[in-house]
Amino acid sequence: MKTLQIITTGGTIDKVYFDDKSDYEIGPPEIGRILEDTGIGFEVHINALMRKDSLHFNAEDRALIRNVIAHSSSKHFLITHGTDTMVDTAMELLDIEDKVIVLTGSLKPARFRDSDAVFNIGCAVGAVQCLPSGVYISMNGKVWDPRKVKKNHSAHRFEANE
To answer: How far is CA 153 from CA 25, 90, 158, in A?
Structure first.
């Protein structure tokens, strides 16, 4: 892997809150700052594709992500994505061949001290370098097949969808 291609789409990982009423906007991608702070040993290219809460994603948004990946000569992609519809987007990418695609995000904004963002990004960076071609979700310290995972909203984690 010469360069890791990172696509940011928004979601909780990039949220900026303004007041006690939980008003927020999707801010600039946090992943660049996080990776720079960790001193990674390879180049990354960040494509800030959109700034949306994943609950507002539509078919056109997923098609845009798909087209960027499918028409790229790169082989390794990390996508930061909102957790609510991460599985839906991953499912739309399943038939892209000869690329490693890992989606990750966070359940708390990266700007929060107790956020899971840094941990999830670290796991995803390791996963995208080691996995065979395919589409994966990296959350909560595990790497998931998107066909076999769901977000458990009440427990605030991803788990098997048995």
So the answer is: 21, 18, 8
